[in-house]
User: Fold MFS transporter from Carboxydothermus islandicus.
Amino acid sequence: MDQNSRRNILLVGLILGMFFSALDQTVVGTAMPRIIGELGGLDILSWVTTAYMLTSTTFVPIAGKLADIYGRRIMYVSGLGLFMLGSALCGTSENMTQLIIYRGLQGIGGGILMPMAMTIVGDVFWVAMFIILFGIFISFFMENIKVEKQPGGIISKEKPVESGAK
Assistant:
């Protein structure tokens, strides 16, 4: 496999990771009031979002330092794994406390994914190409925000949310 093919595969993988992170912030964010209503915790709705934002923001510099020590690939794959684990656990939440904790775990993964994607692109591509790809990544992320709120609204409106809460 030549160098360009490897870079293209890497780029697709990074974009997919960013896609799932953006998907979480848009589709799930739109459906979150319904999910929280099913779990009976509208009074602590803000904690679900705050847990994600706080942990993701906190882990950006930590992930950068750990990536310098252990390598970018390990950190990116770890972030993706934590993000997916947190997402799966959020789907199994039976009460608001579990949902808040699992969203915090998901936030750790999200806080690793986004900056690692940019760092890896900066390491692999030359500066002019990095600027172009950074613009593409940002525009891709912004398009997701515009388009993916609709599926979240449709899911939360038409499909009942299953939960173990009584």
Observations:
- The CA atoms of residues 13 and 47 lie 31 Å apart.
- Confidence is low (pLDDT under 50) at residues 160-166.
- Residues 3-39 form the longest helix (37 residues).
